[in-house]
Amino acid sequence: MPRSQIWSQRTEFPMPQPRRNRLLKIALLLALPVAAGLTTSSGRNALWSAWSSVRGRATVADRVAALDGAVRDDVRAWCAQADVHYPPREVALVAFKEERELHVFGRTDAAWKHLVTLPILGASGTLGPKLADGDRQVPEGVYAIESLHPNSRFHLALRVGYPNAFDRDRAKSDQRTALGGDIMIHGGSASIGCLAMGDDAIERVFLLCADVGVDAIQLVIAPCDFRRTDPPAHPGAPPWIDELYTLLRFEVAKFPAPRYDLGTPASAAGFFFPRRARRMMINGMNVAPTLMKTAVGTPLVRALNGASKPAFGFRYASFVP
Question: What residues act catalytically?
Answer without folding.
Answer: 186, 194
